């Protein structure tokens, strides 16, 4: 989950739209008369589908689809004037162009986080039952310092997860061909909500442009899935909860962007299909912060952001009350989210359209991590220090977890080494595109320290690589949440599960408390970061802005006895 972003494709999502200096998405001056485009429209509170549809029609739009659960509609309307007309309607929150609202970058950018160490490296099927399933460790687990930091190695001797517990990977997809993913992949529940868009994703791989379930052309989702629930099966790595079921909820594009409709539809689907936990290692853009009425933004941009906020808030709330535990990465912008800096990166596309936006914390949200009922997760390194890039703050951090910190270990042999990051599953195809695996499937020698290949006796090969980011911290916490459901859940009608508030209670109350550093102002200047990265840790040992309630602890979580279990 990165906060320094750029488009990886040659064109923007909706190529006919431009952004003015004020950030207003509008039709170009030479737009053809009568030209139309697609929008996502959100109805105002307590407005019926019929009334919302009528209001959309009055504003000049035609409804072609939608999600009645959250009052969201897919609309075709003129390129000019529709956003303003929708915003003026009392029946509608507003309209937003169908453009990306989230990004989980698959490549490291200068100053970004998730693949920094790749460059340095180049230079140098149990069923659920009454008796909990247990598990051992896999060959590459000795490289998973994060697994030990959250005590998954101890927890799995007591409870390795219940196959009835489902974890949704709301991401770029999941490569189910990996032999560490395959045993735990739930084909029946997995679904793709995000058709490829050729202007950002490149040519479609299939005629329908809807990638088959079980594939991941971005890589990010597969890495997340492995950390949560790679099988303990004698090959490769194992996940924090190696016996739970993994459900692909593809809401992100191959290029790493997320759109409002696929994201909301994935959340509603998960809620309606009994998913227990969802991991969300992405964030809403083109705005780093979505604000209700930022004076730096044009009226139309304000209306689009209000539409995104309302749509996401409704979907997250709906999922929570339908039994989904929501876990999200805190973000990699190295800032206290209770005291955000001026946003200089939004809107982040089209290219070169960003402008300075002072952020009012009272009316701006970093989504989904600041959304309702979401457990925000900060990142730490092997030393258990806060990762240099990780967001923090008393307002948003619930717990902390291993996300990797390439620059950790200053003064030791581990400083600036790839082993400080998080190793997990990754698609062969993406590694080949990135140039670390050749056409024959062999890892190139210069990547031998950062990319691994392991094969089963039957010849099925899995690939593994290092990444860092709060994107990697969140799945550690989601894995522990899945173990909590496994250990403390119960039969509820035809389903097995545990109410989200109980999951959050156990996750936070069993986390290992960790005090702020001394001095409280943590400087990263010695590891090569500018003073902007300096971070002040506020709060007590019991709860503070770096660690929240503490570092997630899988063993304590599965062995604790809760007050409600005694009644």
What does this structure look like?
- The protein has helices at residues 49-58, 82-88, 116-123, 145-149, 152-155, 198-201, 220-229, 260-272, 299-321, 428-434, 470-488, 500-509, 554-559, and strands at 18-19, 25-26, 36-43, 62-67, 72-78, 92-97, 100-103, 166-171, 191-192, 245-250, 257-259, 277-280, 290-291, 325-329, 364-365, 374-380, 399-402, 422-425, 451-455, 461-467, 490-492, 495-497, 521-522, 535-536.
- The strands form 8 sheets. The protein has a 7-stranded parallel sheet, sandwiched between helices.
- It folds into 2 domains: 18-98, Alpha-Beta Plaits (2-Layer Sandwich), CATH 3.30.70; 116-559, Rossmann fold, CATH 3.40.50.
- The model is unreliable at 1-31 and 105-129 (pLDDT under 50).
- With 567 residues, the protein is an alpha/beta fold.
- It has 13 helices and 24 strands.
- Helix 7 runs parallel beside helix 11 (470-488), helix 8 (260-272) runs parallel beside helix 9 (299-321) and helix 11 crosses helix 12 (500-509).
- The radius of gyration is 22 Å and the shape is globular.
- 57% of the residues are buried.
Provide a brief overview of the structure.
This protein is of the alpha/beta class. It has helices at residues 49-58, 82-88, 116-123, 145-149, 152-155, 198-201, 220-229, 260-272, 299-321, 428-434, 470-488, 500-509, 554-559; strands spanning 18-19, 25-26, 36-43, 62-67, 72-78, 92-97, 100-103, 166-171, 191-192, 245-250, 257-259, 277-280, 290-291, 325-329, 364-365, 374-380, 399-402, 422-425, 451-455, 461-467, 490-492, 495-497, 521-522, 535-536.
């Amino acid at each position: 989950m990165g906060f320094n972003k750029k488009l990886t494709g040659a064109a923007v999502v909706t190529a006919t739209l431009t952004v003015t200096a004020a950030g207003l998405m509008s039709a170009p001056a030479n737009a053809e008369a009568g030209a139309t485009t697609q929008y996502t429209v959100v109805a105002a509170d307590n407005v019926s589908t019929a009334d919302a549809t009528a209001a959309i029609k009055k504003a000049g739009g035609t409804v072609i689809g939608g999600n009645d659960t959250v009052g969201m509609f897919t609309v075709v309307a003129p390129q000019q004037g529709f956003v303003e007309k929708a915003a003026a309607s009392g029946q509608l929150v507003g309209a937003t162009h169908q453009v990306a609202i989230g990004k989980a970058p698959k490549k490291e950018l200068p100053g970004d986080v998730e693949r920094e160490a790749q460059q340095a490296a180049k230079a140098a099927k149990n069923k659920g039952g009454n008796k909990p399933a247990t598990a051992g460790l896999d060959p590459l687990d000795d490289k998973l310092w994060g697994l030990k930091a959250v005590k998954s190695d101890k927890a799995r001797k007591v409870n390795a997860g219940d196959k009835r517990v489902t974890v949704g990977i709301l991401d770029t997809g999941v490569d189910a061909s990996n032999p560490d993913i395959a045993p735990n992949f739930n084909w029946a529940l997995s679904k793709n909500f995000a058709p490829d868009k050729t202007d950002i994703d490149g040519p479609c791989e299939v005629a329908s442009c809807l990638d088959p379930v079980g594939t991941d052309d971005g890589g990010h989702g597969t890495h997340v899935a492995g950390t949560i629930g790679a099988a303990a099966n004698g090959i490769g790595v194992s996940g924090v909860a190696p016996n739970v079921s993994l459900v692909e909820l593809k809401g992100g594009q191959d290029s790493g962007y997320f759109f409002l409709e696929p994201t909301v539809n994935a959340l509603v689907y998960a809620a309606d299909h009994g998913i227990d936990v969802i991991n969300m290692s992405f964030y809403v853009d083109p705005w780093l912060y979505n604000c209700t009425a930022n004076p730096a933004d044009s009226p139309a941009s304000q209306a689009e952001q209000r539409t995104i906020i309302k749509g996401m808030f409704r979907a997250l709330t709906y999922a929570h009350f339908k039994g989904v535990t929501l876990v999200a990465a805190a973000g990699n912008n190295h800032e206290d989210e209770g005291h955000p800096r001026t946003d200089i990166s939004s809107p982040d596309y089209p290219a070169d359209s960003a402008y300075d936006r002072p952020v009012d914390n009272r009316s701006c949200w970093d989504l989904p991590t600041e959304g309702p009922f979401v457990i925000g997760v900060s990142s730490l390194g092997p030393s258990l220090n806060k990762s240099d890039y990780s967001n923090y703050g008393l307002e948003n951090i619930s717990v902390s977890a291993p996300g990797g910190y390439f620059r950790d270990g200053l003064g030791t042999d581990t400083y600036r080494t790839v082993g400080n990051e998080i190793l997990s599953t990754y698609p062969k195809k993406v590694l080949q595109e990135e140039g670390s695996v050749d056409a024959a499937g062999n890892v190139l020698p210069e990547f031998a320290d950062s990319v691994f290949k392991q094969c089963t006796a039957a010849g099925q090969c899995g690939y593994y690589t290092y990444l860092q980011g709060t994107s990697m911290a969140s799945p550690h916490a989601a894995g522990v949440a899945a173990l909590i459901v496994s250990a403390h859940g119960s039969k509820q009608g035809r389903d097995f599960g545990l109410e989200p508030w109980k999951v959050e209670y156990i996750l936070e109350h069993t986390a290992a408390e960790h005090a702020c550093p001394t001095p409280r102002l943590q400087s990263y200047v010695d590891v090569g970061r500018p003073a902007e990265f300096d971070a002040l840790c506020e709060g007590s040992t019991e709860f503070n802005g770096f660690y929240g309630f503490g570092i997630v602890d899988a063993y304590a979580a599965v062995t604790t006895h809760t007050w409600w279990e005694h009644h």
